[in-house]
TrEMBL record:
Gene3D superfamilies: alpha/beta hydrolase (3.40.50.1820). InterPro entries: AB_hydrolase_1 (IPR000073), AB_hydrolase_fold (IPR029058), HAT_MetX-like (IPR008220). The keyword NADP does not apply. Its main location: cytoplasm. It catalyses: L-homoserine + acetyl-CoA = O-acetyl-L-homoserine + CoA. This is Homoserine O-acetyltransferase. Belongs to the AB hydrolase superfamily. MetX family. Residues 51-359 form the AB hydrolase-1 domain. It is an enzyme of class 2 (transferase).
Length: 379
């Protein structure tokens, strides 16, 4: 059970949302006059404010890292890592997790309100990048009166944000934890995302993104997008062990297009449950932001140059069955950190769960993160 401290004032606590004055100038040339950010906090700041941890969520994640999701009723997405007695502990840390810019759980995005028109942004929302998400998080920290972070931590797309933090705000953090992530999206990553985007836009209910008025979203397209993406989060060994070629409680195939195989039923369930909590336009915007992500390109083609100004400590973790962001991607980052003279530790963990391992039961990951954070606290 996660221990949640009582709110200190209206800035800290659960289910918070704030509208911050802009302007926020975006990499794509757009400007947001104001920025809505929904966020959750757990724990309390210590006397000198040196215990603040920012957690960055992945593509389909949200701010409910350790509290019940209001739409699904499910526990937070990282209760294995965040909670009483866990590596990230409200008894030791002030923990902050914000819904990213472009998402659909309260932060500014296509499903939100355009203050200039009073209507939904839809596809009129400006194009965003991972760096734009980080700048919005920095605005939130300013609002909360937090100048410096003990750590920024993230897995997958959250790891991209964590990696971007020391390049944009090198003096604002002490340590960085990057799990199952990358410094750039590969052609294969972009290809899988494009399949998902095309599935959404091919759905007749998408209508150029203007589906909010009659509440008929492109659910079929978004469901297929989720199914395709979910395959990349798993491993072949994990799929074989969990499903194999097993049928749905039958001894023989029915020779049709119903869900004969257990894996078919599993993927369809993933797709159907996803559309209940996520917005299709947000999926388009966030996947595009991930595809634009290339940290070296943003620093004259040199990944090492991206980290030249930071004094932060880094911990990178990969998984041996992750083929979405394989270990080789983490090694590239470690080599760049070494070239920049940064303090960096790296470990590849063994897990049958593929890319999703950072969200699942991998006790060794908890030990790595706990040891890294405690070493920084002792320092």
């Amino acid at each position: 059970m996660t221990t949640i401290a009582a709110p200190l004032d209206d800035r800290f606590g659960l289910d918070r949302k704030v509208t911050l004055p802009g302007p926020l100038r975006l990499d794509g040339g757009g400007v947001l006059a104001s920025v809505d950010i929904a966020y959750e906090t757990y724990g309390s700041p210590n006397a000198d404010g040196s215990n603040v941890i920012l957690i960055c969520h992945a593509l389909t994640g949200d701010q409910y890292v350790a509290s019940t999701h209001p739409l699904t009723g499910k526990p937070g997405w990282w209760t294995r890592m965040v909670g009483a007695g866990k590596p990230i502990d409200p008894a030791r840390h002030l923990i902050i997790c914000a819904n990213v810019l472009g998402s659909c759980m309260g932060s500014s995005g296509p499903a939100g309100i355009d203050p200039a028109t009073g209507g939904k942004w839809a596809m009129r929302f400006p194009v965003i990048t991972i760096a734009d998400m980080v700048r919005a998080q920095a605005m939130l920290l300013d609002h909360l009166g937090i100048g410096r972070l003990h750590a920024v931590i993230g897995g997958s797309m959250g790891g991209m944000q964590a990696l971007t933090w020391p390049t944009l705000f090198p003096d604002r953090l002490e340590s960085v934890v990057v799990i199952a992530s990358t410094a750039r999206h590969s052609a294969q990553n972009i290809a899988f995302h494009e399949v998902g985007r095309q599935a959404i836009m091919a759905d007749p209910n998408w209508r150029g993104g203007d589906y909010y008025a009659d509440n008929r979203p492109p659910s079929a397209g978004l469901s297929v997008a989720r199914m395709a993406a979910h395959i990349t989060y798993l491993s072949e060994a994990g799929l074989t062990e969990k499903f194999g070629r097993r049928l749905q409680g039958r001894d023989a195939k029915t020779f049709g297009f119903d869900a004969d195989f257990q894996i078919e039923s599993y993927l369809r369930h993933q797709g159907i449950s996803f559309v209940e909590r996520f917005d299709a336009n947000s999926y388009l915007y966030i996947t595009r932001a991930m595809d634009y992500y290339d940290l070296a390109e943003d620093h004259q083609g040199s990944l090492a140059r991206a980290f030249e100004r930071t004094k932060a400590r880094f911990c990178l973790v990969s998984f041996d069955t992750d083929w979405l962001y394989p270990t080789s991607e983490s090694r590239i980052i470690v080599h760049a950190l070494n070239a920049a003279g940064a303090q960096a530790s790296f470990v590849e963990l063994s897990s049958p769960f593929g890319h999703d391992a950072f969200l699942l039961d991998v006790p060794e990951l908890n030990r790595v993160v706990d040891g890294f954070l405690r070493a920084g606290e002792r320092g």
